Amino acid sequence: MNEKILDGLRQADWLQRDSVKAVFDLLDGAGGQTKAVGGIVRNTLLGTETGDVDMASTFTPNEIIDRAEKAGVKAIPTGIEHGTVTLIVGGEAIEVTSLRKDINTNGRHAVVQFGGDWEDDAKRRDFTFNALYVGPNGDLLDPLGGLEDCLNREVRFIGDAKKRIKEDYLRILRFYRFFAFYGSGRPEAEGLRATVALKSGLDQLSPERVWQELKKLLSAPDPSRALLWMRTTGVLAAILPEGEKWGIDAIHGVVAAEQELSWPIDPMLRLRSILPPMADKLVDLAKRLRLSNAEADQLQKWAMVEGLNAEMKDQELKALIYWGDQAAIIAALQLSLASMRQKSGESMEAVERASGYLRLLKVAQTWVAPEFPVKGQDLIELGHAPGPDMGQVLTKLEKRWVESGFALKRDSLLSEA
User: Fold this and answer.
1) Alpha-carbon distance 298 to 215, whole Å?
2) How confident is the model at residue 109, as a pLDDT?
3) What region does 368 belong to: left with phi over 0, alpha with psi -120 to 50, or beta?
4) In what order do the strands lie in the sheet with 34-37?
5) pLDDT tens digit string along 179-188?
6) Rg (alpha carbons) of the chain, rounded to whole number
7) Tens digit of pLDDT for each residue in 50-79?
8) Do residues 202 and 169 make contact, with C-beta atoms less than 8 angstroms apart?
9) Residue 204 pLDDT
10) Rounded Cα distance, 94 and 52, in Å
């Protein structure tokens, strides 16, 4: 079986790309000086979407830049203090990092020493299946036995799990994120125990790093098992206490609806499913995790949606959308539908309510609000004086128009004015 998989690696499409071949040629890949590493190798072996190509090289950053300049290749020192140079070839960005050893580690501020060998470079990485290297001919270099873990879908820390985590506490969240994407069964025992013992170290991380890692986890095809283990170990409570108290069971229904109704994966919708729709708590959450203004706004508008029910008429929904936020109402309907579908095996009432929410969701996703046909200038021309009184008249007319199902014509509204 392994030989067949390795043959597939040698024939990987990305190895045949001109840009990848050019970087291998530039940095003597044929001589063993440069190899692809990390996610591109892991994902190819697992038969999933591959992603960006990252490489490791025996050349120092300055040597990489020098070779690139002589070949007319654009080189950007994106992380040169850690040995990373980005080469732009044929419109593709390929990161190349010099082989290195971590001399002193503190999250993103590690002190590194360039040089060493492939095993030294592998030992400073996080998980065994991320320490797999491939040369230009597709031959695999596996210094730490990561191939077996990769094929068994085992997320295993390299060396001592606690030591790896203490180097960068973000690795606790990466452990669960990689489990969400690639893991099978239950998480590896030593890694699980290490995340429990050291979860207090998550307080040392910047909120931005925590949120970005959580958002990646929520983007997995099915993050429910990872979230369950995070709740069990207390890791979820450490970074998202709102979700811990509210519960994560609803995410099963969301994932099922995504798969069965062809919804695109939306980490923000999944986040909403495990949060209480309480505006004050969501304000605190957005500040604590430093969500973007747009993300914080999404949560707030969703928390303020009121009045939805499966029996409401289409016209009632359209009025709600007209006065409210369409995207937030769509999200609320999706969550209500997912919840009812999840309960549909328990009662016919849940089936009927699911049908109602599905009908309303289709309306909300396709309806385009019309433009109110009366303007302030129209009232001025009728003799109304600009000011608060005229504004009240305009608002009253707009409410009448919405209540009519947006049917009242401009002339009728002006006659009322």
Assistant:
1) 15
2) 56
3) beta
4) 74-79, 84-89, 92-98, 54-57, 34-37, 133-134, 140-141
5) 999 999 999 9
6) 28
7) 789 999 999 999 999 999 999 999 999 988
8) yes
9) 95
10) 7
Instruction: Report the interhelical angle of 224-233 vs 189-198 (nearest 10°).
Output: 50
157 forms bridges with which residues in the sheet? 127
Rounded to whole angstroms, how far apart are CA atoms 55 and 133?
8
- Asked whether 110 and 102 are in contact (CB, 8 A), the reply is yes
User: Largest Cα–Cα distance of the chain, in whole Å?
Assistant: 87
The full DSSP string for 262-290 is TPPP-HHHHHHHTS---HHHHHHHHHHHT
Tens of pLDDT, residue by residue over 157-204, are: 999 999 999 999 999 999 999 999 999 999 999 999 999 999 999 999
- The share of the chain scoring above pLDDT 70, in percent, equals 96
Selection from 57, 41, 287 nearest residue 146 by Cα: 41
Which residues touch 297 (CB under 8 Å, ≥6 apart)?
none
Tell me if 112 is assigned to some domain. yes
Residue with tokens 């002339």: 411
Distance CA 128, CA 158 (A): 5
> Encoding tokens for residue 310?
């499966």
Would 62 be classed as within a structural domain? yes
For the chain, percent helix, then strand, then coil, each to nearest 5? Answer: 60, 10, 30
Which of these, 413, 306, 416, 307, lies nearest to 370 by C-alpha position? Answer: 413
* Domain extent for 339: 305-366
Residue type, position 123, single letter: K
Pair 156, 191: CB distance under 8 Å: yes
Q: What is the DSSP letter of 183?
A: -
CATH number assigned to the domain comprising residue 38: 3.30.460.10
pLDDT band at 380 (very low <50, low <70, confident <90, very high): confident
- One domain for residues 321 and 412: no
* CA-wise closest residue to 268 among 229, 303, 232: 303
Measured between alpha carbons, how far is 98 from 386 in angstroms, rounded to an integer?
Answer: 70
**Cα separation of 272 and 257, whole Å?**
15
Same domain assignment for residues 27 and 71 = yes
Q: Check whether 248 has a pLDDT greater than 90.
A: no
Q: Residues near 228 by Cβ (< 8 Å), separated by ≥ 6?
A: 248
Q: Give the three-state DSSP class for 276.
A: coil
Instruction: Give yes or no: residues 411 and 309 share one domain.
Output: no
Q: Which residues contact 193 (CB under 8 A, 6 or more apart)?
A: 161
Contact by Cβ (8 Å): 217, 223 = yes
